[in-house]
Amino acid sequence: MGKLEITKNDLKKRFAEYNDLYFQNKLKMPLFKFIMAKKPYGSCHVDKKRCEIWISKYVKWTDETLKNVLIHEMIHQYVYEVLHGCKYTLFPHGIRFYYVRWRLNNKYDLGIDKIPI
Ligand SMILES: [Zn+2]
């Protein structure tokens, strides 16, 4: 798989697809921003007013790795918006995050956080 040049539109399309496939369309469309560095690969900033998902512009994304990272960030959003979890900035990967990730990996064989980027 070659390097993907990603646009915000691609991210929106993927988000809508994964929201439908894995999150029962429970997530609100976030605002997408690009991180102008290789790391972090992605981050999620969510509170009561808005959700922003930031994705690195400088990673050599493949279809698989971009899917992996975007779903990881969507799990943060799901934990906050649907499970009323702790704010991302306080507990980035709490018990609810691990539970949802385990459930998705188990049910759909997604390998979230298991593939090298
Ligand atoms: Zn995370």
UniProtKB/TrEMBL annotation:
It comes from the Bacteria. Residues 12-106 form the SprT-like domain. InterPro entries: SprT-like_domain (IPR006640). This is SprT-like domain-containing protein.
